[in-house]
Amino acid sequence: MNMGKNMHRNRHHNLGNTLHQNIHKQHSRKKKWNELSPMARFGTVAAGIVQLSLLVAAQTDITRRPSAQIRGSKAMWRLATLVNFIGPATYFTFGVKHRPVAK
Question: How would DSSP label each residue in 39-98?
C-alpha cells in the first residue's frame, strides 16, 4: 500500500516538474530576430550602434591621449573598454585625468 502511495506521489511530482520545466523553457527561450517586434529590432540596433560608438571613441581617445593624462595603463583601459557600455563610460569618467578649468 505504501509503495502505491509513493508511486502516485512521485508521478504527480514528476508531472509538476515537467509542467514547470515547460513553462520555464517558454519564458527563457531567446527569440529569433524575425520573432522580434519592429520596436525591439530598432532598440537592439540602436543599442548596438551606441555601444560600438562608445567603444570606438574610447579606443581612439586612448590611442591619441598621452599616457601622462590617463590614470593607469593604456593596456588596462583598452581591455576595460571592451565591457559593454560600462567600460567606455568608466574610462571617460575615471580613466582620463581632467585638467582644472581656468577662470
Answer: HHHHHHHHHHHHHHHHHHHHHHHHHHS-GGGBSS-HHHHHHHTTSTTHHHHHIIIIIBPP
In this prediction, residue 16 has a pLDDT band, given cuts at 50, 70 and 90, of low
Tell me if 95 sits within 8 A of 61, measured CB to CB. Answer: no
**What is the tens place of the pLDDT at every residue in 79-92?**
999 999 999 999 99
Strand partners, 70: 96
> Which three-class secondary structure state does DSSP give residue 16?
helix
Give domain limits for the chain.
39-95
All three cell numbers of 71, joined, read 590614470
Q: What is the pTM of this model?
A: 0.65
Handedness of CA 56, 57, 62, 64 (dihedral sign): positive
Which cell numbers in the block locate residue 12?
504527480
